[in-house]
Structures are given as C-alpha cells and as structure tokens.
Amino acid sequence: MLEKTNGYSYPKTDELIPITTFVSNLKFTGNKHDFSNDNYLPIIFIKAGNLFVDSQIQRFISQNMIKGAKRFDGNLVRPLYVFKRPNGKYSVADGQHQTVMGIFYTNLGENLELPCQVRIHPEHFTIEQCLMVEAEFFKALNFRRRNVGKVDKLRADIAIQDEQALRIEQKLDDMGIRVENIGCQTGPEVYGYDKIMEAHQHSGLVNVLKAIKLYISFQKNSKASKWNDVDKPLNGGLIGGISAIYYLLNTHLGEGDKSYALLTYLSDYLFKTKPTGKESIMADTAGVKQSVLIARRIVDRCNALTEIGVLTKKNGERLEYKIGEEVMFAAKLGDPSKM
C-alpha cells in the first residue's frame, strides 16, 4: 500500500530486509577466510596539494566529465584509493576526477582535504614495481565495476601495457585524434570510439586522415556555418562516412570525370549540408551500417547534382553517367537493405 505525502507516494512500511537474509539465500558457497578490522585500509585526510597522479594515468582524465560536474559535492565523494610510494609521495590510483573537481571548483583549492584509503608500497619497491602494482589495481578496479565501457576497458589495458591496447592507442595517435583523452594529445577529440575504429579498419588510415582534414576545414570555414561547432568533438560516425567516400574515390573511381564530380561535391557542396541532428546527412543512419548509409547519402546527392547539370566533367561538359550500384557494391557500400 502507498500513501501520498507532498505529492509523492511512499510505502507505509519499508521493504528493507537484512542483507544476511540475502546472503543465506544464495545458491552457491564461498571459501571463507579469516578477516578483521585490521585488514581494512585506514582512511586519512590528505590535502589535494599533496596528492600526485602518474603521467600514464593523467592523460586518461576526462575534461568533459570535470566540465559537466559544475561543482564539487562532498555528499558524492567516496574515499580515494591512494598508494604511498617509498619516496613518500601519494599516488592516486582511483579518484583523480574527484581530486581535480575539488581543486577546480572549491575556494580551498590545493588545501582541500580529501578522504583517502592509503595502501603502502614495500620500502624496497622500485618505481617500476610500484607502477606495475598500481596499473594492475587500476585494471582490476575498472573491470569489477558494472557497465564498464569499451573505452574504460581500453584505458585500463593501456595502463598495464597490454599489447593490443597499445596498438589501438597507436592507431588513434596515427589518426591524430583523441577519444576520451586517449590518443594524440594535441589532436581534436572524437566522439564515437567504435565508429572511428571501424573507419580505420574499413577505409584505411590515409582515407580517415583525409576525412578528418576535410571535417576540420569545414569547422573553421566561415561559409560552413552548419559545421562551425569548433568546441564540440568530431563525430566518429560522420568521419566514417566521409572516409568511405575517400576509399571509394581512391580504390574504385580512379581519376575520371565521376571522381572529379564527387571531389567537387565534397569540396564545394558538402559543407552546405547540415552534418548532424534532424534533417542532416546523418539523420536516421544509426547502427552498424552507419558509415555506409552516410556515404551512400553523399553519393546520392552528388548524383542528383550531376543529373541536373550542376556537377560536370572536368572540361565543363555534361556528365551523362552517375556513380552506379555496381561500383558502390565493389567498394563495400552496397545498399544494406539488399545485402
């Protein structure tokens, strides 16, 4: 039964049950071991100015998360997990964002005291041994959390120098971009990790680089007002679609008149199209075939302008033939509805 108070409905009696009841109802058993309060890590307060973050972890701090927080809320702060190294420095393994937010948003700044669980490295540990223990903890912590995304898993694997993760990081660096601060630190941020990696795999590095260069040129072009959100991350799906067009150009259209018409569309007409949101070139393209759908939409619009004589041959004569389905299929851009 529910009763209303101030417009809200509350149960007349709470539905709390002893957590021990929940445990007794579990259908499996665990290997028990001795434990006491001494096994907990002590919690002490440490000033933010006395906390350090390893450079390998520092690049994973999300500026978007800090910016979106708006303020530092003590009610949401949990104890930081901190390692004390033999040199006396406190290395934050978990809680970097809370620390940065506290310094950034409070008047106390570096004098803000934060609750910390402190784990002490053995005195004989080298810096390399400390780094390895902290990196292993960083990965274990991230994998135990629920709903850990692919980028978080990547971040954890990079921290422990996993070879596959490092190869992915190198690909992001080669593309000159960052995804949640992983990759090229001087490059633009890209939203859509899966899509940008799909673009790299499908279209190749050279074509992705061309797509990113075109995208950024539109962001800076005063005539391309619909693309001028220079402070926003680049869209990985849109990069994928444009990369697929460059793949089509470089592998299946050669240097003929069709190629000339499509390149002209990219340079002179694409920036006039709304890139994202409703009624955009990306509208209703979400899904595994997004890059294909975007690329096909670009080709369709190029063909439409060719048909009415806006786009022509190199010599200015009318181009009679459009980019057809056969070449689109060969370039892995066939109609998904017919695949």
Please describe the structure with a list of short key phrases separated by commas or semicolons.
Conserved hypothetical protein from pyrococcus furiosus pfu- 392566-001, ParB domain, five-stranded mixed β-sheet, 13 helices, 2 domains, 43% helix, alpha/beta, 339 residues, two-stranded antiparallel ribbon
Going across the biggest sheet, name each strand in turn. Answer: 3-7-5-6-4
* Integer count of domains: 2
Number of helices: 13
Main sheet attributes: strand count, strand direction, barrel closure:
5 strands, mixed
Order of helices and strands: EEHEEHHEEHEHHHEEEHHEHHHH
Q: What is the β-strand count?
A: 11
Q: What is the residue-averaged pLDDT?
A: 89
Class derived from helix and strand content: alpha/beta
* Helix content bin: 40-55%
Q: Using the alpha-carbon principal axes, give the shape.
A: elongated
What fraction of the residues are assigned to beta strands by DSSP? Answer: 5-15%
- Report the uncertain regions: none
Write down the Rg.
Answer: 27 Å
Cα(first) to Cα(last) distance is: 54 Å
How would you describe this protein?
By secondary structure, this protein is an alpha/beta fold. The chain folds into two domains: about 40-130, Conserved hypothetical protein from pyrococcus furiosus pfu- 392566-001, ParB domain; about 190-339, no CATH class. It has 13 helices and eleven strands. Strands 3-7-5-6-4 form a five-stranded mixed beta sheet. The chain has a two-stranded antiparallel ribbon with strand order 1-2. Strands 8-9 form a two-stranded antiparallel ribbon. It starts with a strand and ends in a 9-residue tail after the last helix. The model has no long low-confidence stretch (mean pLDDT about 90).
